[in-house]
């Protein structure tokens, strides 16, 4: 999904039913065999910020070439990466004991609270990924849909746990470059967004998850390969499912989710601009959709008067 909050929800859904803390995100394999994802150069005078766009999900065995990134690293002072979304065992227990209503169905089961048409579609897809006809029945619709989506991703070798930032950390260490973590949002922000999400918005986004599972997986695979090959035009021309656009619109109209997404955008804009005020070179790893979307970071940087060179 392109919507940041739903990515976090999917991650949270995979974490909150664990008996222990999840392992660290997997690192994207670096190789010299592929063209590699493109980098945008934002600059003013002698100040340069190179932005590497990340996407999710990615095939678990995907590789990308680091040659351009390593060339830039030779003259880079710092690498900016998003601080991983972390949740401790005590926090998981707290959620399960006291915030269960954020994740679980309060009364009855999933079939009692999910709109009938969506539940019928959910059951059809659930039967394709599990033999358990009661699986995820205890969870609220948005969380159950996230579980289903993760299972469907797994079947086609897609993963939301691949972390380009981890690969950049490794390369930065290799070149002796400082890594600066950017804290864009925490678990509490995601829980607050869940708390303030209306049933109407939840239904719209459940529909988007189901549509992704039903017909959107080939597009996600194609998009990931285009990313690994550095084909930004192919990514930009890959039409998004209308249901996903509708979900994003519904989230942007909701105060809780909008606040989180807006703060993520603003945090990145502020941090990037900080390193455009003085001579030097910086690399930043930023969600690709946040870069390319209408009114996104690249457009905002252009509007601020910075020069932006496309890959």
Amount of helix: 40-55%
> So what's the overall shape?
elongated
Tell me the fraction of residues in β-strands, as a range: 15-25%
Number of strands: 12
Low-confidence runs (pLDDT<50, min 5 residues)? 1-25, 87-98
**Mean pLDDT rating:** 81
Number of helices: 15
Please state the structural category: alpha/beta
Report the C-alpha radius of gyration, rounded. 20 Å
Query: Separation of termini?
Result: 23 Å
Strand order of the largest sheet: 10-7-11-4-3-12
The secondary-structure element order is HEEEEEEHEHHHHHEEHEHHHHHEHHE
Number of domains: 1
Largest sheet: 6 strands, mixed
Quickly list its features.
15 helices, two-stranded parallel sheet, 12 strands, alpha/beta, 311 residues
Describe the structure.
The chain is of the alpha/beta class and 311 residues long. It has one domain. Helices cover 53% and strands 16% of the residues. The chain has 15 helices and twelve strands. The protein has helices spanning 4-15, 67-73, 89-98, 100-103, 110-113, 116-129, 141-155, 164-175, 187-196, 199-228, 232-236, 242-252, 255-274, 288-292, 297-303; strands spanning 26-27, 29-31, 39-44, 47-54, 58-59, 63-65, 78-82, 158-159, 162-163, 178-182, 280-287, 307-309. Strand 3 (39-44) and strand 4 (47-54) form a beta hairpin. Helix 1 packs across helix 7 (141-155). 41% of the residues are buried.
């Amino acid at each position: 999904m392109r919507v940041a909050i739903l990515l976090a929800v999917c991650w949270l859904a995979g974490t909150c039913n664990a008996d222990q803390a999840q392992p660290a995100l997997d690192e994207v394999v670096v190789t010299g065999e592929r063209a590699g994802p493109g980098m945008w150069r934002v600059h003013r005078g002698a100040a340069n910020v190179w932005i590497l766009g990340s996407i999710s999900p990615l095939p678990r065995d995907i590789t990308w070439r680091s040659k351009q990134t390593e060339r830039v690293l030779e003259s880079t002072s710092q690498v900016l990466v998003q601080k991983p979304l972390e949740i401790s065992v005590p926090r998981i227990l707290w959620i399960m004991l006291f915030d269960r209503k954020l994740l679980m169905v309060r009364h009855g089961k999933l079939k009692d609270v999910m709109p009938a048409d969506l539940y019928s579609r959910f059951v059809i897809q659930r039967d394709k990924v599990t033999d358990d006809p009661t699986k995820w029945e205890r969870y609220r619709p948005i969380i159950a849909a996230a579980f289903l989506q993760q299972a469907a991703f797994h079947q086609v070798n897609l993963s939301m746990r691949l972390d380009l930032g981890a690969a950049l950390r490794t390369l930065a260490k290799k070149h002796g470059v400082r890594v600066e973590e950017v804290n864009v949002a925490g678990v509490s922000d995601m829980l607050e967004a869940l708390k303030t999400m209306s049933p109407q918005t939840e239904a719209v986004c459940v529909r988007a998850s189901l549509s992704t599972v039903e017909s959107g997986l080939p597009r996600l695979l194609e998009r990931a390969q285009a990313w690994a090959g550095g084909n930004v035009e192919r990514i930009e021309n890959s039409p998004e499912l209308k249901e996903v656009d509708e979900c994003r619109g519904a989230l942007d109209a909701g105060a809780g989710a909008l606040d989180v997404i807006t703060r993520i955008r603003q945090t990145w804009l502020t941090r990037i601009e900080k390193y455009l005020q003085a001579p030097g070179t910086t690399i930043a790893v930023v969600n690709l959709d946040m870069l390319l979307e209408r009114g996104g970071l690249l457009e905002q940087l252009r509007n601020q008067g910075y020069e932006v060179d496309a890959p």
